[in-house]
Amino acid sequence: MKPTIEFFNGIPEELSDVSLRKYRDTGDKIVLMKFQSLRCMEQFKSFTKSSSNIIHLKDEEGEITIAPSATRLLFGGPEGDDMKGVEVEFEIHQSDHLERFMRFMDRYAQANNMAYGT
């Protein structure tokens, strides 16, 4: 099974970047996922009316359901109204959840020709 990231079941999205950070005071991990565009946005009315702000990460181990702590729509262009991407942020508090997320990201990266960078 090819790993997918979905805001809506059945509509896989293409991740353009992901970064992992850590709160210094608590040690909790923060994941920031970036998307240059969202396929589900092509049907904007559907997105605004039925989005539950949940992300589904699916792979051979099953499904991870995430409620982001922040979602930002990024705009640009001459008038400032061209959608340039989306950023989704969520926290990971437990080490076993981080390990599961990292296994998903390894599979997703391999399936989509992504590589780790600094």
Note the topology:
Blueprint: E1 4-8, E2 11-13, E3 17-22, E4 29-35, H1 44-50, E5 55-59, E6 62-66, E7 70-76, E8 82-92, H2 95-111
Antiparallel strand pairs: 1-2, 1-5, 3-4, 4-8, 5-6, 7-8
End-to-end gap: 28 Å
Estimated share of beta-strand residues: 35-45%
Overall domain count: 1
Low-confidence stretches: 45-50
Please work out how many helical segments DSSP would assign. Answer: 2
Helix content: 10-25%
CATH superfamily annotation: Photosystem II Psb28
Radius of gyration: 15 Å
Q: Structural class, from secondary structure content?
A: alpha+beta
At the first level of CATH, the class is Mainly Beta
How many strands appear in the DSSP assignment? Answer: 8
Q: List SSEs in N-to-C order.
A: EEEEHEEEEH
Annotation keywords:
118 residues, alpha+beta, Elongation Factor Tu (Ef-tu), domain 3, four-stranded antiparallel β-sheet, 8 strands, 20% helix
Could you characterize what this model shows?
It is a single chain. The chain is of the alpha+beta class. It has a single domain, classed as Photosystem II Psb28 (Elongation Factor Tu (Ef-tu), domain 3). Helices cover 20% and strands 42% of the residues. It contains 2 helices and 8 strands, in the order ββββαββββα. The strands form 2 sheets. It has a 4-stranded antiparallel β-sheet, with helices on one face. Strands 3-4-8-7 form a 4-stranded antiparallel β-sheet. A hairpin with a 2-residue loop joins strand 1 and strand 2. 13% of the residues are buried. About 5% of the residues have low confidence.
